[in-house]
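Quick one:
INPUT:
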């Protein structure tokens, strides 16, 4: 840590005061960590490490992290954002898939309230993990924040799976490729509206809250990124089961250029679509959440 602190001082870019013991991972510090551990960013894993302290501070603010919060960070990399979250007073559970990064990450967070787990977040045994993560007596059922810099190829399935399966993960701030973020947060009628946006809306509300320039990463990616905030509601926003709802949504968008009378023909008749108060000539991206709920209810009645 002393060597890291020396490099931080030499870089001259840290926002920390002289009395702040937290090391900020600027570009020179990241290069040094990688060199000393014989590492290089993995393209296959989509590794682009944050190296701008001002952006890290912004992410922590937008994630609304406060002292004492429990934060799950997926994809911490070398710990740039992890350090910022811990400095804000959070207890951080950092889940990193790349075993080669673990020694370097543990070096960076050695003096912080951070638990590092080497695992694939898509296949992780989440119940077992939460059982092992320390809880306080006043928090028998811990409600967690999720903060993550997600590779574009896993972002959508990971978010959708965890919203469905882990209700304790209530407050989210994820950094994703711009197109992915726009699809997660799209409203009915938007060109980006699709399966992800409708399924996310079943569990809560998503919005794009910031854009991230490529130059704040090392190495610099070839895509733009955005910050998406998701607030999961205590209960689903529809009083219909998720599985048939999701199946109907996937069918509707499976042939998104077709009218609902065609795209939903295998599940609903024209008369049933009309009975749900929906025009059979509409297309999937035109429907709001309530309309999908009514269609699901009609479909459920038809299969009983």
């Amino acid at each position: 840590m002393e060597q890291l602190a020396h490099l931080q001082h030499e870089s001259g870019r840290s926002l920390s005061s002289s009395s702040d013991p937290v090391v900020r991972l600027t570009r020179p510090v990241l290069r040094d960590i990688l060199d000393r551990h014989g590492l290089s960013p993995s393209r296959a894993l989509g590794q682009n490490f944050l190296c701008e302290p001002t952006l890290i501070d912004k992410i922590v603010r937008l994630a609304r992290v406060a002292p004492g919060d429990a934060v799950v960070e997926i994809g911490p990399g070398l710990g740039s954002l992890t350090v910022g979250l811990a400095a804000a007073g959070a207890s951080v559970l950092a889940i990193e898939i790349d075993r080669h990064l673990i020694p370097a990450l543990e070096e960076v967070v050695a003096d912080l309230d951070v638990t590092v787990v080497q695992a694939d977040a898509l296949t992780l045994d989440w119940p077992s993990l939460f059982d092992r993560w320390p809880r306080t007596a006043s928090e028998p059922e811990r409600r967690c924040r999720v903060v993550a810099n997600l590779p574009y190829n896993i972002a959508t399935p990971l978010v959708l799976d965890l919203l469905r399966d882990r209700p304790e993960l209530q407050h989210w701030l994820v950094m994703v490729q711009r197109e992915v973020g726009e699809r997660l947060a799209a409203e009915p009628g938007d060109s980006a509206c699709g399966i992800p946006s409708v399924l996310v809306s079943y569990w809560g509300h998503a919005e794009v809250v910031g854009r991230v320039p490529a130059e704040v990463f090392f190495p610099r990616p070839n895509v733009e990124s955005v910050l998406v905030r998701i607030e999961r509601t205590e209960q689903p926003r529809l009083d219909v089961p998720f599985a048939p709802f999701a199946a109907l949504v996937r069918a509707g968008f499976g042939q998104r250029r077709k009218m609902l009378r065609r795209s939903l023909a295998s599940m609903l008749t024209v008369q049933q679509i009309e009975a749900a108060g929906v025009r059979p000539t509409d297309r999937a991206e035109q429907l709001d959440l309530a309309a999908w709920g009514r269609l699901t209810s009609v479909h459920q009645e038809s299969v009983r």
